[in-house]
Design brief:
- This protein is 41% helix and 13% strand.
- The strands form 3 sheets. Strands 2-8-7-6-5-3-4 form a 7-stranded mixed beta sheet, with helices on both faces.
- Helix 1 runs antiparallel to helix 7, helix 3 packs parallel to helix 4 and helix 11 crosses helix 12.
- The longest helix has 39 residues.
- The radius of gyration is 22 Å and the shape is globular.
- The mean pLDDT is 95.
- The structure holds pyridoxal-5'-phosphate.
């Protein structure tokens, strides 16, 4: 049966062109890029091409990019570096809706004696910028605020946020894992000091990421070892994945307009179709400032997990909460922070599209979802009332 894959914020398909680029580095071109010989040297040169491709996607300079093992490592590295580079400063500012790669890192750091401000969001998932400004003190080592949220798709106003951080002279890091490749990100236009990127969210393989470190930013390595990445990240490079990642960035840059037209159109059609056919469905998040590929919808009085299981019978892949927290029945920390009622949080489903999503995929979900929701509502006494009211 054909898979209808609408879980692209969890991970994406490796693009054919990316896989083609990677293959030689699993067979004939297996040299170590740090070796002196020509055989290793050609691999080194190809890694430098990948660095240029990653840099090109965000309008950075190649030497401002280091390769890491994933978005999580990039996030941890950025915050740790900011703390280690200014050891006298003991305060971090972040938000309550970050991915666990930032949130749990900050909670761990807080247990080690650092002070962390977790900024709240409103019911649309938006930050209060005055609160951000007021929370910055002379002791603040770094402000780390995500570019776009993985669950709701809400895009934070980075222009204003970076301006506030800069006006106070505080380094600014952003988790760009969900934003880069989906919306234009330009590190020359915005004063971002560090930005995290992950390969597997943009049609490269899993286990590769990058951290942009603006020229002149104080940096302390997190993974300490050999002289790789000019001493900024030890460890023999994940060569094939890095080379594929470079290609994926080049493709993502070419597809940015498509992402913001055709993919957005498909997302909007899916969303409107579900709102029209499923009683008591509501969108979570700021509908005017969202990633073009993401919709997070609550179906009141229905269990999101039950919806996913029923969709799974038709090979439709979606997600309730973020992939990293599924498996636990903890309600999503993002939706909780937005004050979404518990009955709606438990009935929330995230659909995330990609440039490979087709009209047929959307038709299939629009056909299958209404009967699934009706059926599941029949099982809930409150759900039956919702149906009758409509
Ligand atoms: N940050 C965000 C916003 C994410 O969505 C994810 C993954 O879901 C990560 C960080 C972690 O990236 P990785 O899976 O590459 O470690």
């Amino acid at each position: 049966m054909r898979v209808v894959y609408l879980d692209n914020n969890a991970t994406t398909m490796v693009a054919d062109e990316v896989r083609e680029e990677m293959l030689p580095y699993f067979s004939t071109l297996y040299g170590n890029p740090s070796s002196m010989h020509t055989f290793g040297g050609q691999v080194h040169r190809k890694i430098e091409v990948a660095r240029e491709q990653v840099a090109w996607l965000i309008n950075a300079e190649p030497e401002e990019i280091i390769f890491t093992s994933c978005g999580t490592e990039s996030d941890n590295t950025a915050i740790m570096s900011a703390l280690m580079s200014r050891p006298e400063k003991r305060h971090i500012i972040t938000t309550r809706v970050e991915h666990p790669a930032v949130l749990n890192f900050c909670k761990t750091i807080a247990r080690r004696g650092y002070r962390v401000t977790f900024l709240p969001v409103d019911k649309h998932g938006r930050l209060n910028l005055e609160e951000l400004e007021a929370s910055i003190t002379d002791d603040t080592a770094v402000v780390s605020i995500m570019y776009a949220n993985n669950e709701s798709g809400v895009i934070f106003p980075l222009e204003e946020i970076t301006a506030i951080a800069k006006s106070k002279g505080v380094p600014f890091h952003t988790d760009g894992v969900q934003a880069v490749g989906k919306i234009p990100v330009d590190v020359k236009r915005l004063p971002i000091d560090m930005i995290s990127i992950s390969g597997h969210k943009i049609h490269a393989s899993k286990g590769v990421g990058a951290l942009f470190i603006k020229k002149g930013t104080r940096f302390t390595p997190y993974i300490i070892g050999g002289h790789q990445e000019k001493g900024r990240r030890g460890g023999t490079e994940n060569v094939a994945s890095i080379i594929g990642f470079g290609k994926a960035c080049e493709l993502a840059k070419h597809h940015l307009p498509f992402e913001n037209t055709k993919v957005k159109e498909l997302r909007d059609r899916l969303e409107q179709g579900l709102l029209d056919t499923c009683p008591s469905a509501r969108i979570n998040g700021d509908i005017d400032n969202r990633l073009p590929n993401t919709t997070n919808i609550s179906f009141e009085y229905v269990e999101g997990e039950a919806i996913l299981l029923r969709l799974n019978e038709y090979n439709i892949c979606a997600s309730s909460g973020s992939a990293c927290t599924s498996g636990s029945l903890e309600p999503s920390h993002v939706l909780r922070s937005m004050g979404v009622p518990f009955t709606s949080i438990h009935g929330s489903v995230r659909f995330s599209l990609s440039r490979y999503t087709t009209d047929e995929d959307i038709d299939c979900v629009l056909e299958k979802m209404p009967p699934i929701i009706n059926e599941l509502r029949e099982l809930s006494p409150y759900g039956r009332e919702v149906k009758e009211v409509k």
